[in-house]
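Service request form, structural biology core

Requester: graduate student, group of Dr. S.
Request type: structure prediction, single chain
Budget code: on file
Notes: please return the result as structure tokens.

Sequence provided:
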Amino acid sequence: MRISDLVDDVDLNIRLRVPGAEGRLNRPITWCAPTEHMDPTPFLSVNALVLTNGMGLNVRDFRIWDAYVERLVSVPVSGLAFGLGAAHRELPEGLLQACEAHGLPLLELPPEVPFVLVMRHVERIIATERYEELRKGWELADECTRLAADGRSLAEVLGRVADAVNARVAVIDQNAFELVAAGTAHGDTARTRLRLPSGGAEQFRLAIEGIGSDVVLQPVLGPVAAVIGLQLSYTLGSRSPLHSREAARFMEALYADHGEPSQPLRRYALESGFDPGGDWSTVLIGSSEEIAPAKLRAIAWRARVGLQAAFSTVRFMEETGLTTLLLQHRHGTADLLDAVREFFLDAPELSVIVTESANLSELPLTLQLARRQVGRPGVHKAPLADLAGIVQGLPSPGLVALCQRLLAPLASDGGSALRETFDAYLRHSGNSAKICDELFIHRNTLSYRLRKIQELLRLDLTDGEVRATYMLALGVVAAN
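Core staff response, request fulfilled:
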């Protein structure tokens, strides 16, 4: 119900004398307030339509009218309807000037139009509009319920809500971090926040930004808030497929696996909702420094909920300081690295590693490789392979025995000093300073040990192929 609706109604015969400032005729009317007080502001609320005969304002001084209108505008009211006949035969000139000066819409009611007729008319239209808003709210909630039941992601459901209110809608947690958002803001800041029903310790809210002033939020979004709250709890809850015992068991098995995928791995993948024969994407979220667990968890939640828009299957496992996301069934060809970066623009201190695997055979190795990369701040793509990954891909018991026999002479003194020195020498490419710093030994001690190693193993350390062979052998023995 707006001021313009009253003016357009021919049955009421209301005359618009002052249109007010730009856009004021489209201001909604929330209720009618008949009053003859010189200062009715203590009894008014925003967007009330003030009805008066001006009985207490039978004055000619413009300053009194100006002060009266200024007080109404400070509320602010939607407009002023002035009834003729009881105290004034025509609108006071001072009132006209004051309404023009302050941009307040002024309506003239003829003597044959009583206040009660206007009030009943406005209340009937407001009641009809409220019923329509409630109906739209329940229809939106019903539609979003069907979307959620069909397996649509939280991002898709939120997108439908954003379309309904023509604004930007976001789910935020108690730390004001956005988990997922949809729509575009058409105004300045968030007009309101609705609390989402949640039975857990985490308190989530629906933030609406840039909404049009003609949209009444509570009737429209009240019912759907419960749907979003339920889907959010399901999406992030410990019993959902995203965070299930089966998914955790599968990922733990992947981290423990060092060879060809076994039947249990394939079975675990199926139980977690994956296709064992498909390709895989993984995102590891850790920290390069001390960070509040609540913040790390909130951002990890935001990433995994947001990635549901690009992947139909998203599972995760949480550890202390690290969250592993496992993704499958991508929609479209968008680059995963670019998509992931969007979720961490406000958290540059986090260490996020992205990697992809062509099949289940590669997945354990690429996961373990990505885990070794966690630590560098920022979002990075893991390399395809490193030495440790290649070594882990060689699980043959015969190879392990062969490597142990190859390095056995280094234990002739009964200790591990020679083997540790050899390992540091190969890893640091013979850099004496780095080797001595790592082992806390003098250069003379290093020279003695290297001579001893060459004598025991009967090898030439200047031969590149020899160094590569023993480096692999050390890796195989260390991995087993």
